[in-house]
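Re-run with default settings, no changes from the original entry. Doing this only to confirm the output is reproducible before filing.
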Amino acid sequence: MAETGALSVKIVTKRGLSWQGAAQYVQVPVEDGSLGILPHRQPLLARLKEGPVILTIGDDTKTFPVAGGFVSVDSDVVTVVAEGMES
């Protein structure tokens, strides 16, 4: 479970789990731009386009380039299902 004020994030592909942990902010590439996700966001399901998934973890930032897929957000749990990860 994520710490208070954080999001519980999973990034998965057909090869399995790529990353799992807590983040304060998630940005994903969606069909019409990008979507920022903060704790307590309303539930959503959105289609991803090719581009970076950016996680803010404390003072650090992690970037995962994805090749499409979808993102699900519900109760501070963010699940990114990527069609593939770019190099």
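Residues 67 and 81 are 10 Å apart (CA to CA). The first strand starts at residue 7 and ends at 13.
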